[in-house]
Amino acid sequence: MASAQSFNILAILAILVPSILATEFLVGDDKGWTINFDYQAWAKGKEFHVGDKLVFKYPEGVHNVFKVNGTGFQQCMVPKETEPLTSGNDVVTLLNPGRKWYICGVAKHCAVGNQKLIITVLPYTVSPVPSPAPSPTYYGKRYTA
Ligand SMILES: *[C@@H]1O[C@H](CO)[C@@H](O)[C@H](O)[C@H]1NC(C)=O
Ligand SMILES: [Cu+2]
């Protein structure tokens, strides 16, 4: 059973380590957040973890970023009750695991321009630290005098 102390240490690591190892993903790489880009292909093979950041880069006023649910993503529907990100350098920190959907709410950029991103955020997992190899157990005969 883990002691309270080792639990505390793990809890502290769980908070500190992600902030050190967090990855910043520039959405679309050098193309940024734009129309007619395959964000599905961009996200493929990438691992997003809690604590990582997405950066949406675009000329201010040309696009925006709405976080939507699965329905909003499928139908390119922007939620009326939330405001989009509009700075042109929008940083989204991934706080929770699960599916996340982002679309552009300008004109028909999502429906026609395919400006939509879906990712799956994985829980933060501490990569296993290689433990020192166990010293070999001696199974040979023991001789006593
Ligand atoms: C998805 O988002 C829309 C717009 O905000 C909302 O009306 C709808 O109820 C949501 N659907 C689910 C399944 O949460
Ligand atoms: Cu747009």
Task: Provide key terms for this protein.
single chain; 145 residues; alpha/beta; Immunoglobulin-like; four-stranded mixed beta sheet; three-stranded mixed beta sheet; 7 strands; elongated; binds 2-acetamido-2-deoxy-beta-D-glucopyranose; binds copper (II) ion; electron transfer activity; glycoprotein; electron transport; disulfide bond; transmembrane helix
How does this model look, in words?
The protein is an alpha/beta fold and 145 residues long. The chain has a single domain (18-125), classed as Cupredoxins -  blue copper proteins (Immunoglobulin-like). The chain is 20% helix and 21% strand. It is built from 3 helices and 7 strands. Strands 2-7-6-4 form a 4-stranded mixed beta sheet. The two termini are 41 Å apart. The site of copper (II) ion (CU) has 6 residues, from loops.
Q: What's the structural domain tally?
A: 1
Instruction: Return Rg in Å.
Output: 23 Å
What is the mean predicted local confidence, pLDDT?
86
CATH structural class = Mainly Beta
CATH architecture: Sandwich
Helix content: 10-25%
CATH homologous superfamily title: Cupredoxins -  blue copper proteins
> What structural class results from the helix and strand content?
alpha/beta
